[in-house]
Recover the amino acids of this structure.
């Protein structure tokens, strides 16, 4: 096992956590793409079901890349060099610079830690909602405030300060995911864009299957 590797037991736990997180996402995507009611959403051709799961992994992959870039940026904010970032990721310093070009700022450059006008605030956009992450100058802790897609406003509890922006983003993201707004027309457009409209025979759903 390498210095930054994981044990076999940790691998099992990680796989279980990933699949537990993927299951509701894959179900939601499958339901939208198929247009089928909740108790029938997994019906259909095996290839359609498999593509729904693949689409969910794509969402997870995109989110992991975003969080990875945010973690690299946080490390850079605290003084990590591209050589250190590359060492952790198993790539060269040049590779780390190419992968995360904004992670490490030059001292004194606009936006660098301590530079005039530098801002630590960040934005999270998820599920149609938006949350702002802010770092308090005095405590150095992170907080969040947000508005969900349904218009509901939320914020970190008054006495809560998160150690990293990733931790604050995770709590903000959980709030935004719980404030979804169902848009039937958008769901139908999404299905049409993914599968096309040539096989649709009725107006009840993407393929008119609800009455089957």
């Amino acid at each position: 096992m390498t210095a930054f590797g994981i044990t076999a037991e940790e691998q099992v736990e990680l796989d279980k956590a990933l699949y537990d997180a993927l299951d509701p996402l894959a179900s939601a995507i499958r339901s939208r793409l198929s247009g089928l009611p909740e108790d029938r959403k997994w019906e259909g051709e095996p290839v359609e079901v498999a593509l729904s799961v693949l689409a969910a992994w794509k969402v997870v992959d995109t989110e992991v890349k975003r969080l990875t870039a945010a973690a690299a940026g946080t490390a850079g904010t605290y003084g990590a060099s591209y050589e250190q970032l590359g060492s952790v990721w198993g790539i060269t310093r040049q590779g780390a610079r190419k992968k995360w070009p904004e992670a490490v700022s030059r001292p004194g450059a606009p936006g660098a830690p301590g530079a005039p006008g530098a801002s630590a605030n960040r934005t999270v956009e998820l599920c149609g909602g938006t949350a702002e992450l802010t770092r308090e100058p005095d405590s150095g802790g992170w907080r969040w405030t947000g508005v969900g897609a349904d218009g509901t406003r939320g914020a970190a509890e008054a006495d809560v300060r998160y150690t990293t922006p990733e931790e604050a983003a995770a709590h903000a993201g959980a709030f935004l995911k719980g404030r979804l707004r169902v848009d039937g027309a958008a769901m139908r457009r999404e299905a049409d864009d993914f599968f096309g409209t040539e096989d649709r025979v009725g107006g009840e759903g993407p393929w008119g299957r609800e009455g089957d």
Remarks:
- The longest helix spans residues 46-77.
- Residues 108-119, 200-212 have pLDDT under 50 and may be disordered.
